[in-house]
Amino acid sequence: MGFWRISSLRHGDFPLSYQFATKTVHYSRVVLRFLKCRGRNLRRCVVISLSVWGIWAGVGIACESPWWDPNAAEKPIRLGAECSFDRGGPNEESDVTGTTVKSIGGARIAQVITDHHVCTFTQRLLVVDCASAELILVLSVPRPRNASNLLTEPPRPIENILRPKGAIRLNERLTLDRLRKIAKRKSYPFTEDPDDAHFAGMDSLKGFDPFCGCKLLHPDSLGATK
Question: Radius of gyration over alpha carbons of the chain, in Å?
């Protein structure tokens, strides 16, 4: 599944994100309360508080979104080859991208959709049955928490639900019914509604067509008419 592997994040010099700024303030207050900062302890508390600010501000800058674009919400989704896309995010600090579609047999196609955010990312597996014009979108499961994701939601890489690590094997035997049963058994969150308000994790994918692969690979199918 190397062609679907998404690196966690690239880094750049961007404004400090709001969530890290608020966390910096929060943890500074925690330190001040813990040390009972008043009287003779005041100088020591100021030094410690400034240190906390420096550490957390550094983390915030290192984790700032590389897709920072103040006009992102107004820009249309950008389509690429074989139904791939980017610029699907709704705001200046995120992006939603899609891989090229792949045929898995039986008039079914698969695509990986990645929701990039500050210091983390979430991946979903889209499987479409072009013959029946039905689909399932499965959310991957998170990595265990560690020092690199203590402050953010853990990444949800697609390999966590795909064989050999996960339970889903992409081949001609993977019907939507089989995928549904696997997702329920393994507690993988999923949706079957392309009109879901949070389809692919975003309020809007700005015109993304989940049946694009049917039009490309199975133009005579029911899914191609969607």
Answer: 21
Has residue 143 got a pLDDT over 90? Answer: no
Question: Is the link from the previous residue into 210 a cis peptide, with omega within 30 of 0?
Answer: no
Task: Quote the CA–CA distance of 221 and 76 in Å, as a whole number.
Answer: 28
* 188 touches 105 (CB < 8 A): no
In angstroms, the CA 126 to CA 151 distance is 29
Sign of CA dihedral 205, 206, 212, 213: negative
pTM of this structure: 0.71
In this structure, what token pair is assigned to residue 72? 């992102």
Give the rounded distance of the alpha carbon of 95 from its chain centre. 8
Nearest to 212 by CA among 135, 124, 121, 145: 135
The neighbouring-strand residues paired with 191 are: 137
Relative to beta strand 108-117, strand 95-98 is antiparallel
